[in-house]
Amino acid sequence: MDFIIGSGSKPAAGGAAPNDLIKEGSAATFAADVIEASMTTPVIVDFWATWCGPCKQLGPALEKVVVEARGAVRMVKIDIDKNQELAAQLRIQSVPTVYAFANGRPVDGFTGAQPESQLRAFVQRLGKGAAQPSLTEIIDEAKAMLAQGDAETAAQIFQQVLGEDPNNAPAMAGLLRCLMAVGDIATVKQMLGQLPTDLVKNAEIAAVKTALDLHEAAAAGAGQAADLRRRLAGNADDHQARFDLALAYYGSGEIETAVDELLELFRRDRGWNQDGARKQLLKIFEALGGAHPVTLQGRRRLSTLLFS
Fold this sequence. Notes:
The chain has helices spanning 30-36, 53-68, 84-89, 116-127, 135-147, 151-164, 169-181, 185-194, 197-200, 203-220, 225-234, 239-251, 255-268, 272-288, 293-306, and strands at residues 22-24, 43-48, 74-79, 97-102, 105-111. It is α/β, with parallel strands linked by helices. Belongs to the thioredoxin family. It comes from Magnetospirillum sulfuroxidans.
């Protein structure tokens, strides 16, 4: 993501900043105060610190122009010393740093102290509407957050999209993957069972269904990896043991190793169990998605074996 940079400070003297326009934020409230709120109104996030001199100049000036905008934008102030993990996640290099969010994603920003005229232009530009991303762009951003491990924030964005377009298949698939990422398998099953037929047939949702099937198959053999490795050490042609070990690796998140074992099984006996190794590889590739690095590399290696 391209984040934007700016400042931080305490509220303007005299308490001039209305509570509904300017508030103190934290890591715990960031998703609601910034991500969700910016879906309707641009939000300026002011990262500051008590020891930062320029922050004491920029903060009150920025609050002033936000108030002047009369609700066209909102402002959230984050003390980086009290929210070090959030600052690290957003790669705050120095303060003052300001990010502007719209539709759940960063759209503009600056670093360091700025003259009031530039702050006013900045706020006016946001108030008139920062470049509005398409739903596809918003979904892509949420997918990136999920890939980076932030399933909760990604889920909130997917839900926002579904609020606008309840039948948006990529957003539904993304939400289901977020639920799987946090271990809420029961809800995933329930939601899949309630989806309209046309959505269930969508490729991205079908891939989630495949991922769920793989998860359950892997869960059935959880805790058996050590025994399966011993079996293979004694007999490298124990194909069932290798197949089950691949599922165990997949279930523990060692996806590349799972693919390695299935490719090795295919190399040793491509016809085993009615082409079982290749079929399982294709399920993993479908679950991961065609653009996933493991899929791309795995398909190349499988093709090499097929035509060797």
